[in-house]
Amino acid sequence: MPDLLMMDGARGGSLANNLDQRLVCPLNLEDYQVIVENLPQIFFMADADGKITYVNKYLIDYTGKAINDRFSKKWWESIIYPDDFLLSAKAWILAIKLKDVFQIECRLKRGSDETFRWHFVQAFPVKNRTGQISCWVGTCIDIDDSKMAEIKNKQMAAIVESSDDGIIGKKLDGTITTWNTGAEKLYGYKVAEIIGKSITILYPKDKIDEFVEIMEVIKMGEAIDHYQTVRVKKDGRLVDVSVTISPLFDRNGQVIGASTIARDIGQYVELERRKDAFIGMASHELKTPITTIKAYVQVLNKALSQKNYDQTASFLNKIDLQLNRLVELISDLLDISKIGAGKLELNKEVFDLNNLLDQVVDNMKHLYPTYQIKCNSKSGIKVYADKNRVEQVLINLITNAIKYSPKSKMIEIRIEKNKYKVIISVRDFGIGISKAEQKRIFERFYRAEGVDEKTFPGLGVGLYISSEIIKRHGGRILVSSKKGEGSKFSFVLPLK
Ligand code: ADP
């Protein structure tokens, strides 16, 4: 019996036992040599010190590299993936030192297409009857396909885990089997507390029938795409979600469960609600001046037909005022659609910002004589900006300051400049804005919802348009405010 067959380690141990039990393989040494040389996988041997003494034909064929310089380090370096080489060498030296089984996964270069394929490499020490290591025998098994599948699975798992959407797996009876971090964020349940529970825990009581309806579709192997509905969070709050549910099949094509991708569409639903409210208000705001103009035109018509010219000028003035309101409204609507389409263009020029501010303030004083508007504007600050758009922002901030200050009549405007930027701030001592609302007032169609605010007319688009204008100038618009004490809106324009 050749010493070669007395191997250590898991496999070697059982073979040695077999030999002890006299189940001796009826092959001679030459037969073994022929077998290992022609094995349909890589086989190698090393001496007790770990020096490679033999590799079979399969390795030479696989690498396409003949061994000229007997098993040199260079040869191994040329076939082992660079990142794996040092690790493999270290593990090999350690195994030899500890006289223990060597096991590693590394990539070996295939000569035919120059690709590196993952292999599971293992070697066992072979001991002689006195317990001395006489040599090492090893194999390299190509595990590339399963390794790639494993890597792909890990990548998929990482994608699922990092997704902001809730991704949930469930059985046909609704038992939850998988739950990603997105689902945790969306519904508030941790993985440990939800796995094994029924998905219906997320259904509001009045929507429980949806579960049966959804599963009927899934059982037929069909998917449900972007279905908008409502679910319940752990804390009992409702959340608007869009869900896509797809069947999960086993190897035989049988439906065994479903995967759900759920997205929080609360913000979108809220925006839609605000948009609807805006359309309602905008139509109303458009209709009011038109009705007024119509009435004045009729009165004017009558006065003219009776040659009564006394009040015509005043009627025409009133019509003009209403027409101005209409123009403002229509401009806002146009601006919103331009911003939405990314087409808000700026016509920049160099102009004196103090002059512009002085003009706007004078106009405002004229329009709102009961208000005391103070402004520190003095010397000429030149900016390169769109004059009309900056004027629009100024008018919006000052009219808001006036509109939302029904009791206090004081408005303070400051203009300041440093080397890089100019800051204009408009301060009022009106109703103020709560911290929570301050975060949202620059959103499209947003109007603060307090009792105070409800009494002021508006469409909730002025600040949105203003902030977009300032952003497009490379600047910022800011608010600081305290409920009941007033607000300060500032905008920063960079100086070129
Ligand atoms: P609108 O005034 O037409 O509603 P805006 O976009 O100009 O729209 O303002 C958005 C919201 O911000 C307003 O509805 C109001 O609640 C709040 N707001 C704006 N300016 C002020 C201010 N100076 N003081 C208090 N609240 C303000």
List keywords for this structure.
binds adenosine-5'-diphosphate; 5-stranded antiparallel sheet; 17 strands; alpha+beta; 496 residues; 26% strand
Which molecules other than protein and nucleic acid are bound?
adenosine-5'-diphosphate
- How would a crystallographer describe the biggest sheet? 5 strands, antiparallel
- The radius of gyration computed from the alpha-carbon positions, rounded to a whole number of angstroms, is 40 Å
Q: What is the typical, i.e. mean, pLDDT?
A: 90
Q: Reading side by side through the largest sheet, how are the strands ordered?
A: 2-1-5-4-3
The parts where pLDDT drops under 50 for at least 5 residues are: 1-16
Distance between the termini: 91 Å
Structural class: alpha+beta
Shape: elongated
Task: Briefly characterize the structure.
By secondary structure, the protein is α+β, with helices and mostly antiparallel strands. Helix content is 43%, strand content 26%. It has helices at 9-20, 29-38, 57-63, 73-79, 82-98, 144-162, 181-187, 191-194, 209-219, 266-305, 312-340, 353-367, 387-403, 435-438, 451-454, 462-472, and strands at residues 42-47, 52-55, 102-110, 115-127, 133-142, 166-171, 176-179, 224-232, 238-249, 255-264, 349-352, 372-375, 382-385, 410-417, 421-428, 476-482, 486-494.
Walk me through what this model shows:
With 496 residues, this protein is α+β, with helices and mostly antiparallel strands. Helix content is 43%, strand content 26%. It contains 16 helices and 17 strands. It has helices at 9-20, 29-38, 57-63, 73-79, 82-98, 144-162, 181-187, 191-194, 209-219, 266-305, 312-340, 353-367, 387-403, 435-438, 451-454, 462-472; strands spanning 42-47, 52-55, 102-110, 115-127, 133-142, 166-171, 176-179, 224-232, 238-249, 255-264, 349-352, 372-375, 382-385, 410-417, 421-428, 476-482, 486-494. A five-stranded antiparallel β-sheet has the order 2-1-5-4-3. It is elongated. The protein starts with 8 loop residues before the first helix and ends with a strand. Bound molecules: adenosine-5'-diphosphate.
